Here is the input.
Amino acid sequence: MNTITLPDELNLDSLLSIGVYNYETAQEISKQQIILNKNTFSFLQEGTKEVFFDNSSYSINNSQFLLMKSGHCLMTEKLSNVQEHYKSVLLFFSNEAVLKFIRKFEINPTGSNNYYSTYSFNYDSFIKGFANSLLDISKLSKSIQKNILDAKFEEIMLYLIELKGVDFLYSLISNSDNQSQKLMQTIESNKLNKLTIKELSFLCNMSVSTFKRKFEKSYAMSPIKWFQEKRLEQAAYLLKQKNKRPSDIYDEMGYENLSNFITAFKTKFGVTPKQYQTE
Here is the structure.
């Protein structure tokens, strides 16, 4: 699977710090490797979207929209059952635009360290109107777009700060060059997601061989073995605490069939899933 770099591949002016693009497709993608060279609002209009980042993941429908930090992610887009299209208004903006905004409005951080690479927000009437206005702006000449988008960027940021505080804003410009920390964040955040080693390596911006080497150094276990252990522990929780049936969860736990799941569960816990539930 080829990696897509955005917004570079959308023919937007790369020199502009803020850009808008009306994205529409009739083709679905599944866990597409994406490199975001700019921070991005995705105002979903039709269809559903799922994203995986190093420290967060979301699945949304068109009652929500996403704010995504620049970097590596996996993206799934599914078509609307009604229109059989996927539509999203994309607003791209650089870290420089964020820093300029922070300086202009003298916005101070809260001291929180709970910074994430993506955030999900619900639409309200204001946001719906804002997204529709971006559609109109995308039809204007590039020279006019620049000045208007500068103002629109400030508008959406001020509104979200009023609703949600400033942590999401500082998340966009937070930077960690600590590879070990990034690897552990990626692993812990995605331990129950059915991602391949190659996909996890991409999120960490590492080769597969480097990922495996660093993983085993940090966890003293192979990635495959560690993820299997965590998923079986989650299965045990679902069986005992949530009274789930083995047939309901084996696929969710990453097993191709119920028989393989029962065998792996018994190997770890010494009893079958059914026996575990009744103990």
